[in-house]
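Can you give me the bound-state structure? Components:
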Amino acid sequence: DTGVSQDPRHKITKRGQNVTFRCDPISEHNRLYWYRQTLGQGPEFLTYFQNEAQLEKSRLLSDRFSAERPKGSFSTLEIQRTEQGDSAMYLCASSLGTSFGTQYFGPGTRLLVL
Amino acid sequence: AQRVTQPEKLLSVFKGAPVELKCNYSYSGSPELFWYVQYSRQRLQLLLRHISRESIKGFTADLNKGETSFHLKKPFAQEEDSAMYYCALRWVDSNYQLIWGAGTKLIIKP
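Here's the bound-state model for the whole set.
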């Protein structure tokens, strides 16, 4: 297992288009997180899954954003009707289901909305 | 609301000099504090966490609840320490999400 993977690594899209990102966590990890990072800032929490259940969503996650983890393994993050303000690095992390589980991060998907 | 502040966006020190990266937090309860590091062209990775009380790559960090700080220190900087460093906080009932500082870019000059 080479760690958390994300696909694609880069995405350029036009405003108004829909985009979907995929995250494959470390195989035995039951917790999965999505973060967004803009230039000069630390990551901001978007949403969190425990197995297939989405347990928490940030207020940052507008109605245009949706995330799924249908079988408790990989996850997808979809952004509908993209806006220029959605341009950011989207990070996925996973952890074991213990109180002190370290979050392991993927390389991120960099989104540019033109 | 919980907040993590890293007051320095950039810190530049000479090789062999001591390094201190500052992190302050606001939270009234008992937090878990972390330092993550991101080397050039690499992903974010955990450097250390306060509950482990360990030294990683010569770095240490002590949680000071009185000053609400978790500063990262290393007595003798090495060129390979050049990276972005992020302080992060996790609190009770947070569903294990992390709140992050804006990061400090550490440059070690030869």
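A couple of observations. The first strand of chain A starts at residue 5 and ends at 7. Chain A touches chain B at residues 3-4, 31, 33, 40-45, 48, 55-56, 91, 93, 95, 99-108 (CB under 8 Å).
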